[in-house]
Amino acid sequence: MSQNEKISEFEERKIKLNTIREKGINPYTSKNNRTNHISEVLDDFDENLVKSITFVLSGRLKSKRTHGNLTFANLEDSSASIQIAFSKKEIGDDSYKDFVKLIDMGDFVEVGGSCFLTHKNEKSIMVSEWRVLSKAIRPLPEKWHGLQDDDKKQRFRELEMISDRRAYERFKKRFEATRAIREYMWANKFVEVETPILQNVYGGTYAKPFTTYYHGLDQDFYLRIAPEMFLKRTVAGGFERIFEIGKCFRNEGMGPAHLQEFTMFEFYWPYVDYNFLMDFTENLIKEVVEKVYKNFVVKYGDNEINFQPPFPRKTFDELLKENLGVGVKDLDTEEKVEKFVMEKSLENKVNVKDKIGWPAKIDELYKKTVRNKLINPVFVTDYPKELMALAKTKEEEPEKVATFQLVINTWEMIKAYNELNDPIDQRERFEAQERLVIEGDEEAMPFDHDFVESMEYGMPPMAGWGMGLDRFFALLEGEENIRDMVMFPTMKRLQTVSAPRGMNESEGQELGIDYKKAKAIFEKYVKDDNTKLHSIETESIMRDLAKYFGEDEEQWGIVGLLHDIDWDETSNKVIDHTVRAAEILKGEGASDYLIETIQSHTFGNKECGENPNRKRETKIQYALVAAETLTGLIVASAKMQPDKKLASVKLSSLKKKFKTKSFAANCDRELIKEIEETGLSLDEFFEISLKSLQNISDKLNL
Hints:
By secondary structure, the protein is α+β, with helices and mostly antiparallel strands. The two termini are 27 Å apart.
C-alpha cells in the first residue's frame, strides 16, 4: 500500500473496534473480574511465584512488543505497572492473533495468569486468558514522544498523567497532603463545615469577584472570594474550632502564582490569639511535610526553600525599614508614598498612581520592594490596620492590627489575625471600604449588613487564617506554575469547529478528483519552482494534520497540493488569486466543496480573491490557511541555520521566531493562530508541522 493510500491510525483503530464487535465481543463491557491490584502482586511476588497463584489483573496497556509467537506488554493500574506476556502456545492461535491484531497501546484489558521471571529476572505475568474492557480509538501522546505542549497538558490533564507517571504521582501527593491536613485538624478537635459559594455580598479579603445573575431573586450574586464571613457567623452560632476546605474565585489576572479558581483552607478558633496560631501553623506544616513530602528542603527554580520550623517573625514596619530605610510613620499619607517612589526612581517598578487610597498604595510599595525578596518562610506581623478591614487592632498599638502573614517564595501563603468582633469598629471599617467602592476600587469590600448585625448579637474573641492550598502544594513539589498543581485549571474555551456528532468532517465530502488526477493538474499548471515547493510543503503538513484529527489524509493532501494552483497566472494580479483557481478546477472536474475549500484561504483578504467579507468556518479551512502560512516561517528558519537544513531547526527556536514579528514578516501570525480554532494548540501545530517538513527534507533540498 502506498503512502497516499494509508489510512489514519484513528480510522485504523475504528476498524479494529468494528471487528471486535463483529466477533460478538462487547468492547466497552461493565463486567470485571479483577482479584488484585498490581502492587499487591509485586509486593508478594516471590511467594506468588513459588505457589503458582493465578491472578486476574485489569488496567491500561502502556506498551506492546511482538516477537513472533510471543508478545510482551506493560499493564498499568493506579498502584503500579507490570510486564505481561502473551504466548501463542499458552492462549491458543485465535486468541493470540486477536490480541496482536486488534489490541493497541492505550486499551484497557483484563488478564488472568501467574507470576514468572524472564531470563533477565524481570517480574512478569504469563497470561492464560484475556479480554478487552475498553477500546481506545485515539492514539496516546507517546505517538508524539510524550505530551510536550503545556497548554495541552493543562487542558487534557488525563493525557499528561497517562504519558508521565510523575504527573500522576504529583496529584496523588496533593490529595494525600489534603487528607493529612484534615487529619491534623480533626486530631486538634476541629469540625469541618460547609458555607455558601454563591453569595449576595462578597467579602473577606480585597479582590474583584465573579458576578452572575440570580433570576429567581432578580439580583446580582457573586462567587465567593473567601468563606470568612459565614465561617465567623458559624462560630457565633456556637461552633468552636471549625475549618473549611473549598473553592474560592477571584476575577484577577492570570499568572504563575495566581488562579481565578483556587482551593482555600480556612479555619477559626475562639479564645486563642494570633501568636498562638503561629506556633500551630509551624506544627501543621511540619506534620504535612514529614508525612507526605518527607523532605523539608525544596528546590524551587534557582532557590532552595527550607520548610523546617521555626520560622523568623518580623513586623511589617521592621521589614520596611530594613529594605527601604523608612517606616510606616514616614509614609503615612498617599502623598508621602508617591513622593518616596519618585525620589527613589521606583516608578517603573511600583505603580502607585493607579492605586486608590493610602492602603492600596502602601501595599503596592511593600509587595514590589519588600515581599518580592522574601524566599524562605517568614511570619510578617502587625500590619497597619487600614490594610485589613476584618482584623482586630492591637490594644497597646491601635494603629496596627494583631495579624501575621506567612510569606514563602515572595508569595502570601497564609493570612491570619485576631478577628475583629467589635460591631461599632466593624461598621466604621465597612463604611470606609464602601467609600472606596463608590470611588471605583473594584477590590474594596462592600458593606455586609448581615455580618455586622450578626456581630451585634455577640461574637466571641477568636483567631483564624486562610491558606491557598494550590500555592502551598506547588512550593512543596517545586512546581513554578501553580496551574500544574491543579488537576483541571481554568482554561480559555477553544472555538473548535467540528463535524456533526458521529462523523468526521471529511466523511461524505467528494472532491470530484482523486490524487492521481490532482497530481496531473498540479504538473499542468504549476511551473514555478518556489510555488511547487510551497505546495508540496503544504500538502505534507495537511496530510499530517488529517492524520492527527482522524480525517481523510488524501483529501486534505489534495487541498494542500492544489491550493495555489493558479499562482503562476495570478502572482502579478493577486486580486484574481483563487478566482482563476475556481475556473481551472471546475474545468478539471473538481467538486464545489474542493473549490470552496481552496478559495477559503483567501477569505477575509481585501487584496486577494473575491471574498473579502467571508469567514472561514470548517476545520479544514482553518488548517489550510494556517499550514500554508506556517511553511514560510519554517523554511525561513531552516535557511537561517549554518547548514541551511530543516533537521537543524529546533522546535523552541521556531516558537521564538514566531514571536519575533520582524522575522519572516510576510508570514501573517494571525493566520497561523487560526489553527487554534480547530482545537489544536499552537505548540502542537508547530511540532507536527516541523516534523512533517523534516520528513520530506530531501524533496525540498533543505
